[in-house]
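Human: I would love a firmer grasp of how sequence relates to backbone shape in proteins. Could you go through the record with me and say what the backbone is doing? Here is the record:
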Amino acid sequence: MQRTRFKGIKIGVVMTGSHCTIGDVIPQLKKLKEEGAEIYPILSYTVNDVDNRFYRVNDLKKQIRELSDNPIINSIVAAEPIGPQKLLDLVVVLPATGNTIAKLANGIVDTPALMAIKAHLRNQRPVVIAISTNDALSINAKNIGLLLNMKNIFFVPFGQDNPLEKANSMVADMEQVLDTAICALQGKQIQPLIRGPY
């Protein structure tokens, strides 16, 4: 039996430059689409422009276009109307780098990703953050704390991905993105939030 938990829901999927995590994001986009979501892809400058050892930009964009009926948003100008047009029901930042987390926590808007989040939040609508950052338990811990205390921001449960070699690194459990999104649409933070090492 086909599940349609997101039927009629417009979801902005913001992808930022944790390149090693992008491969785990695409399956979640497929699941959102399979469950009825209308996906609006939003790319940070880094994801939009930089080939790397994990993917080629053109290949990634091809995959994204196959999963969305909407054009890729990849500029601040294109992201700004998300607010006044009340375009989206939910924004999912998947993955959210430490850089994006720090800027969001401090009100800096200098990428399409951050503009999309800011524009959406002005409508008092939910944002889900799936962190992927090497400094979650060091310099970025305070910024994560600030966001945890902000209205309309919800986190995908996260934990240390390699505590022996990267003691400060934490990554969201991508398999919980959909359940977190459902809770966020109801104004709830999924629990438990912190999970043990992967």
The helical segments are 22-34, 45-49, 57-67, 76-79, 98-105, 112-121, 141-148, 177-185.
